[in-house]
Give the backbone structure.
Amino acid sequence: MKANRSTILRSRDRFWRPGDIAGAPSTVQHLLADLAKGGELRRVRKGLYWRGTKTPLGMSPPPTDALAAEVSGDKGVGPAGLSAANLLRLSTQVPRRAQIAVPARAGRSTPTVEFVSRAARTGRRAAGLDRTEVAMLEVLNDLSTSELSPQESWRALRGAVTSGRVRPDRLAKAAKTEPAVTRARLSELLTDAGMAGLAAKVPPADPRVRERALASFK
C-alpha cells in the first residue's frame, strides 16, 4: 500500500474512490480512511474522497462544479434555487449549501452541496445544457429566488439570451420536458428577444397557466 499512499499524496485537485486503487477492498478502505483521518484526504461521502489543498483548517473542499460533475455528470446539471439566481446575477445571496439540480434521482447531499432531483426533466441532458442554461430554466420556473423586481428580472434574463450567455436553441430543445410554467415563460422570453422561430418550438402551455405565469411581468 506504500505505493498507493504515495500516489494519492502526490495528487492534487482530484477525487478518489476505492475502485481507483489496486488492492484488497478492506485494505483500500483502511488506507483511504487513514488518510482522511490524518487530513490528507477529505471524505465527501461514502466511497468518495477529495485531495485538494491543505490549509490550517484542514483539506480544502472540492469545488461545487467539480463535485456535481463527479457525482451526476456535467450535462444537464446546474444550480437550483438561490444558487441559480446568484449565477444569473439576480441575487447576491449565497446559500449555506450550494443547490444543484440533476435530471435524475438526486444523489446523497454533502455538507457543502444539496442535490435536487429533476428526474422528469430529461430534456436537459438530451439537449446538453450547461450550468448557466440549467440555472435559466430553474429561475424561469421559480422567480421568487430573484431579489430584483419581476420587470428587472425579465430584462436580465432576456440579456442572458441576447448576449449569447446561454444557447437559445438548446433551451428550446430542453423545454419539452419542463413544467408548463417554465415553457410559458421561456416561449415569451424568446419571442421578446426576437427569436419567435425558436419560441414556436417550445411546447405550448395551457392558456390559463400561461396567463398566470406571465401576469407578474405585465
In short: The two ends are 66 Å apart (CA to CA). The chain is about 45% helix and 10% strand. Residues 64-217 form one domain. The first helix runs from residue 2 to 10.
